[in-house]
Design brief:
Layout: E1 3-6, E2 9-16, E3 21-25, H1 32-35, H2 40-43, E4 48-52, H3 69-83, E5 89-93, H4 95-106, E6 114-117, H5 125-141, H6 147-154, H7 157-162, H8 164-175, H9 179-190, E7 205-210, H10 218-227, E8 232-236, H11 243-246, H12 248-261
Parallel strand pairs: 3-4, 3-5, 5-6, 6-7, 7-8
Antiparallel strand pairs: 1-2, 2-4
């Protein structure tokens, strides 16, 4: 992946397809190439698709922490500016969805549409405590100490049964993270609370979540949609948290028509 410098960090970026700009933002523990690979064939005939590795992930630079969701949204805004993208649509998974919503709230006229896939906007204290504990674990013991547990919690059992190779690849993707970057991203999520910002979002918004998603469960996603003017939401059956990896067919069948509607 080529790289650009944005907001003081070197970010690995890939660009495919042609048409209106669509930026894909991955979540904690993922990278752009592996998370979105299953959806690119559906998206690139219609959009100029830009995907990038977050600061601290994949081939992007691991800069010293602390990281925040607002700071990661600053990275996204800088990337959009560096690439000269005019009113892009944003599709983000998990923390990437949080980043997309944060930017859309900050710049209501600058975002064409938003799709959040398992996108949290705040957490109960137990989740915050778990993220901090995971950050400390990887700093002390490395990524292998959490990779299998993260995969088991994040992917539906049915996915592991029907796609064992995909499950194994996901475990390896988690293991491949730099512990310092991963821990910094965990702590960005510890501080996540977009509740007050959501009513400022003017872009058409679609939120999808799995019925087995423990990070952005149905009730939380419904509350997020209710706080965003005109937002839609949909629950995907027998799906856990890694929706674009587990159910690329849903990205094509539900998210793509929404994006085309607002292209």
């Amino acid at each position: 992946m080529p790289a650009i410098h944005a907001n003081g960090a070197r970010l690995a970026v890939d660009e495919l397809g042609s048409g209106p700009p669509l930026v894909l933002i991955h979540g904690l523990g993922a990278n752009a190439g592996e998370l979105w690979q299953r959806s690119l064939d559906a998206l690139t005939p219609h959009f100029h698709v830009v995907s990038y590795d977050l600061r601290g992930s994949g081939r992007s630079e691991v800069t010293p922490g602390p990281y925040t969701i607002e700071g990661l949204a600053d990275d996204l805004a800088a990337l959009i500016g560096e690439l000269g993208l005019e009113r892009p649509a944003l599709m983000g998974h998990s923390m990437g969805g949080s980043i997309a919503l944060a930017l859309a709230a900050r710049d209501p006229g600058g975002v064409r549409a938003v799709v959040g896939l398992g996108a949290p906007t705040t957490f109960p204290q137990a989740n915050r405590d778990g993220l901090e504990a995971r950050a400390q674990t990887v700093e002390r013991d490395g990524m292998a100490a959490v990779a299998e547990t993260v995969a088991g919690n994040a992917l539906a059992p049915s996915f592991r049964q029907r796609d064992p190779d995909g499950y194994a690849c996901f475990v390896l993707m988690i293991e491949g993270n730099d512990p310092a970057g991963y821990a910094a991203q965990c702590r960005a999520l510890v501080g996540l609370d977009l509740t007050a910002q959501l009513p400022r979002i003017a872009a058409p918004t679609l939120l999808l979540t799995g019925d087995r998603d423990g990070v952005a469960p149905e009730a939380a996603t419904q509350a997020t949609a209710a706080a965003i003017p005109g937002a839609r939401y949909q629950v995907v059956e027998d799906t856990a948290h890694i929706l674009p990896f587990e159910r690329a067919d849903v990205v094509e069948a539900v998210a793509l028509p929404f994006l085309l509607e607002h292209r």
